[in-house]
Design goal:
This protein is of the alpha/beta class and 221 residues long. The protein is 44% helix and 23% strand. Bound molecules: S-adenosylmethionine.
């Protein structure tokens, strides 16, 4: 694992800590992926064959996306996360599920590491861009590495999501918490994907907070 420096990484390390990771792992073992993650997984499997595919899971958390796609036949996965506690939890789960030899782990801010990370057939950002200020850098680097499909879950671009995030951020600032949350404009996300040759293939709202968007690369003529 690489070391993670910089203010984004300090925030990830402090907020996404061992007890958060433990709770998330317990939840995943008990109930499987979250509803929005299930919708993302289904949309990816509808968009492209998963058998034999390679996966880049950015901000994978305890690894729900890559565990499920590896179970569905994906060849290998790279998990990049700014939280060492989440990476350790994802690795523990991969060992329990018997596919740890098919996963590589990188610790750090994906935007900083992107230059040394290979492209993959499927790239995912599941509930990740909501904790990152520079959406164009993060989504742009992810899109550039998506050979077939890029899948995201992020907050709906709606007034109630903005109001909720504003309230959460006020609380975060009062507690001097290092991590803030963001509702990025959906048109901006679409534009970054488009500039990287990806077209919107699927979109769906899940509950009042989340939306799933899957982009696919135009087939070469
Ligand atoms: C809210 S959690 C989501 C985890 C998981 N994908 C899920 O949906 O359950 C956000 C995760 O993304 C990671 N993260 C956010 N921005 C990142 C970046 N630029 N590079 C690497 N990891 C990042 C955080 O460390 C954290 O583990």
């Amino acid at each position: 694992m690489k070391c993670c420096a910089g203010s984004n990484c300090r925030a990830f390390e402090s907020v996404f800590d061992a007890s958060y990771a433990e709770d998330d792992l317990e939840e995943y073992r008990a109930h499987g992926p979250a509803k929005s993650t299930r919708a993302l997984l289904q949309a990816i499997q509808d968009a492209t064959p998963v058998a034999g595919a390679t996966l880049l899971d950015i901000g994978g958390g305890v690894g729900a996306v890559h565990h499920e796609l590896l179970k569905a036949g994906a060849r290998s996965a790279v998990d990049v996360d700014g939280s060492s506690a989440f990476l350790a939890a994802a690795r523990r789960e991969a060992e329990r599920l018997g596919h740890a030899d098919r996963v590589s782990y990188l610790h750090g801010d994906f935007v900083t590491l992107a230059g040394e990370i290979a492209s993959a057939d499927i790239v995912t950002l599941d509930r990740v861009i909501c904790c990152y200020p520079d959406m164009p850098q993060l989504v742009g680097a992810a899109a550039a590495r998506a050979r077939r499909v890029l899948g995201l879950v992020f907050p709906r671009d709606a007034w109630w999501a903005r109001a909720g995030v504003w309230a959460v951020n006020l609380f975060e600032r009062l507690r001097r918490d290092p991590l803030l949350f963001y509702v990025h404009r959906v048109t901006d996300v679409d534009a970054v994907a488009g500039r990287n040759g990806l077209r919107l293939h699927f979109h769906r709202s899940v509950g009042i907070l989340w939306q799933v968007r899957v982009y696919a690369r135009d087939a070469t003529p």
